[in-house]
Structures are given as structure tokens and as C-alpha cells.
């Protein structure tokens, strides 16, 4: 018992015996330990040499090498470039403009390259002066509420923290924005201002493109003044007229392993067959549509509610986030382009960049078929930009049609007016242009090189992950309208989604998607009151917000006032989520449900009219309750009218003048108490 005793008990052994036992124990232990150490040392000595002899060991780190190139400066030196055009692009337009500017450079005896700031270390800007006649141009789009685009986020963070000396850097900035948004061209303005603060030399004034007006014309106008300023600064002259320079060469594959051909994947080959997280823009998740129902009871429009199954995807989202979906073009449009150009759409080909040093090896995933490219990779429904018309003009056999195309692509006032009326306002896409110009029959490979990429479409998520962790809900309206030429144009994504009928097995109901995080968030404290304003499909994020507040209430949390201002055309036609909202209101989760039916009476009633009607209650919630305000929907009219209404309410009840009221609301925005999720 004493030998097996607990550690805290004294063993019942006399002192002499105890010492003897310890001596014996130590000598045995010593022998054992020496033998063990000798054995381990021998093993290590014999086998370590084999590991050192493995020839691939030094190469192991290269497997996990970062995506970024070591330096854009070294690349420019190696390839003889002196102009770098960085782009911050969310929908591809800024990237397109950057490519056009870099191609322009050759006309002035200069060489340009377009560059994604995400792929380089921008602190190297301080070294650009090492290159003769060097210039950095920035085509920067503003996303959301004054935010940088995803690919420019790191650059933006660096600019904010940088204390670099950029005194040797020459630069110019063209911003892409939309005047209907509160923070028009915030990113372009910030980059222009910050580079100057860091000592860089602006060689041409900031350009501000407005997508609510005519972004293409804004860019052309800026560009035609930008290049003369570059010439003057560097003492160079234009070498001649614009010329058509192919960026890619066509390779037709007659004998190809079909397992190596892209069929619509955005990044990794076969990624749709072998799905691996994490899922993002280059690796979307194929979500099954489990529900697709029409929300409205009447009217000409089709409003729909879709549910996407994200089980086993490890995708996480929060209320207020956006879901991005990659749509496909209408097969009838694709077939018509193939017929007009007399092309076998199922031919397997690659378009390979003629510039071997370029990071962009192909304009879209290759090898692939023309059918796949026109269906999944290229934008065939938006009116083409002027550079596309310029490049296509050479293929028009009729002199009149060729002249018309060149005129629309020119910077002359008459040409700009013709482009605006014949292409933009008439909403002529590439198919319509080919139909209306019978002599224009370009090679399909050059057309595929020129057309912009088909972009993902973003939708405000209409569900809460607390209630629906394995599903994402979408609320959308199908876009369909008649053009001035009498054609019926259909929105790519909404009509594609409309046809996603749930079925048990089959690819017809699969949607490639990923999540884009948003700043549109419920208050941290559930007890904080919220005022939500969202007419039409602008109700989407608020369905998620209300679901989440209901869930919090069920968890025993104290939930503040939840107030909704919703609007639609007719109560009996397009009152979306009527039953759900009525139930939430009845249960007390939705403390106020205010609905404006704009066309059910002689005078139109909108959400801002209901806000004015309840102005005293609004002011009390904002001023005393520290309520958070959320606005979702149309930016051009609704969001602006709602904001003006808040200015009026604040001025009246806060006893302020108009400038002070405006400042009050702007401060709410700065504090994250007035949030917008709007589109134009």
C-alpha cells in the first residue's frame, strides 16, 4: 500500500534502505538513458544525410510563392515599357479603359502596359523615375458608397498609410463614377489628391467619368486632351494615325483532349465538376435553385423569389451582404451571331497574347469553343464602346458603313452625337449592329478579342444566415424593354434566373455564385431602433434584417423598434412578401409597417411622402433613440428624395438651417447610422 500510495503520502521505508534503493535505481536509469541517447543519435546520423540529398528540397518554397510579381518596375525595364496604367475595376470597364490607354502609347513612340494593382507591390512607385519618360496612369472606379474596388483595396490601404517620397513620379488619374451616388468618384479623387500629397507630379488634370451620363464620351474627351499633354511634357510627337493592332493570335485546335477544354469555368479547369472551397470570384460555387416563385399577382413585370442551396459549401454570409451570380447569355443570341458570321461555334480555339511577358495570357479561359466564349465569357448584350467600332470598321465592305463606324469612333462632336443616338440611346448590341450593317462581317476571333467580359451580377441577399444558414434568398425583377429600333432587349441575369426551375438532379437549376461582403449591417446592439426604407425589390435586405431581429427576439434579446417603409405600384399586383410582412407585424417584430402604393390613387404616393407624414416619430427615433437608417433601391430618384426628406425633418425638428441639417445627416453617414445600398 505504501509503495503504491498517492504522491502526497510518505512511503514507510527506513532511511538506509531508502538510500540504497535510490542508488540502485539511478544506476539502472543511467544505463537506460545512455543506451537510448546513443540509439537516437545513431539513427539521426544515418538517416539525416538522405534527407539532405533530396534534390527537390530547395524548390519547395516556390510552390507557395505569392501571386504578386516581385516588381512592376523590373517588368517594365525587361520589356522596354515606360507607361504603366493601373486599374481599379469592379465590372471590367476601368480595366478596358486601361488597356485602351496602354495600346495608345505606341502612337507616340512610347510603350504601355495595363496592370492590376492587386498583382504588384505599389510601394515601387517611388522607383518609376528610374525609367526614362516614365508615367503612371490610374483608371480608378468607385464602388458602392465611395469604396475602392476589390482589386484596388490593398493599394488604397497602402496610400492611406504610406509616407513614401514620390517626388520623382509623374502621374494622371481618370476616375469612373456615377453622379447619382453620394460619393461621386471618391476613389479617383482620393488617388489624385493623395499622390500629389506624397510629392508626385500631376501631368494632366483629373478626369471624372459619369456612368449616369455618358461614361464613354467622358473618357474619350479626357483622353484626347491627355495625350497632347503627355507629348508636351516628354517632347514627343504622334507617329501617325491610330492603327488596329491585334493583341491576341488565334490558335485553332483540331486534335485536342476535351478534358482540357474550358466549358464555362471562371478559373480552374473542371472546377464545376470538382468543387473545392474557398469560393470567390475566380472559384464560384454551383448552388442548386431549390425555389423559384413569382412574387407579384399581376401586372406586366415578373418579380421573383429564388432560394439557392449552399449546404456543404462552407460559405458564410451576414444580413446585408450581396450575392454575386455569373449568368449565361441567351443561346438564341449566340446562335444568331454564329449564323451571321458563318462560323462553326463548336470549333475549339485559343486566343493567345502576342505579348509573352503579359500576365494576361488569354482574354478569357482558353482553350474553349466560340459557343462557350459567347455564352459564358463575353458581354454580347450591352452597346459596344467606340474602340470596338473603330477596330471593326476595317471589316465593313460598304464604304458608307465603314465611314459611319469610323465617325462614331472619332472624337469629333458629330461622331460623338451619332454614337450617342445610334448606339447608346437605341441600345444596339453587337448583334443589332451586325444586323443593321449587312456588309460588316468581322472574323469571329477578332470580335471575341474586342468584346468585354461578361460580369457577375450582384443582388442584395433577402435572408438572414441566423435563420437560413444553408440558403441564400434573392429577390429580383426581370428586365425587359423595347428599344427605339423595335427590338426586345432582355436583361441577361434576371431572364436567365427566371428560367432556373428547381429540379432534383440536373445542371439546369445550378447557379455559379459567391458572396461579396457589405458595410450594410444591422446595429451591433439589437436594442438599437432601425428605420428601413426600401420600395420595390429594395425590400430584399430588409427581409433578412427582419428575420434576424425576429431570431434575436426568440433568443431572449431585447430588440429595439423595427420600422419599415415599403412601396410598390399597386396593392393587389406587386406588394412583395405581403404575408411574411403581415406575420412579422402581427408578432410584434415589425413595430411599424408603412406601405406606399404609388399608383392606386390619382396622386402618386411614394415612401418619402410617408416619411413626411410620420416626421415627428422619425425625428424622435433618430434624435432620442439613436436609430440607424437604411435605404435600399433606386439611387437616381428614390434615394435622393428620401435623403432630401431627412434634411427637411432634421431642419424642422432640430431647429436648424438647411446647411446644418445637411451636415447633421452627413455625420450620421460618417458614424454608420445612415447606410445606403443603392443602384442606378
- Terminal residue distance: 86 Å
Q: Report the average pLDDT across residues.
A: 90
**CATH topology category name of the largest domain:** Rossmann fold
Strand content bin: 15-25%
CATH class of the largest domain: Alpha Beta
Q: Low-confidence parts lasting 5 or more residues at pLDDT below 50?
A: 1-26, 44-68
Domain FAD-binding FR-type: 282-523
Transmembrane segments: 25-46
Protein name: NADPH--hemoprotein reductase
Organism: Thalassarche chlororhynchos
Would you kindly provide a written description of the structure presented here, covering whatever features stand out?
The chain is globular and about 70 Å long. The chain contains 21 helices and 23 strands. The longest helix is centred in the first third of the chain and has 38 residues, at about 15-50. The relative contact order is 0.08. The chain folds into four domains: about 70-235, 3-Layer(aba) Sandwich (Rossmann fold), CATH 3.40.50; about 275-325 and about 455-520, Translation factors (Elongation Factor Tu (Ef-tu), domain 3), CATH 2.40.30.10; about 330-455, Up-down Bundle (NADPH-cytochrome p450 Reductase, Chain A, domain 3), CATH 1.20.990; about 530-680, Rossmann fold (3-Layer(aba) Sandwich). The termini are far apart. The protein has about 675 residues and is of the alpha/beta class. One of its GO terms (cellular component) is cytosol.
What's this, in brief?
The protein is of the alpha/beta class.
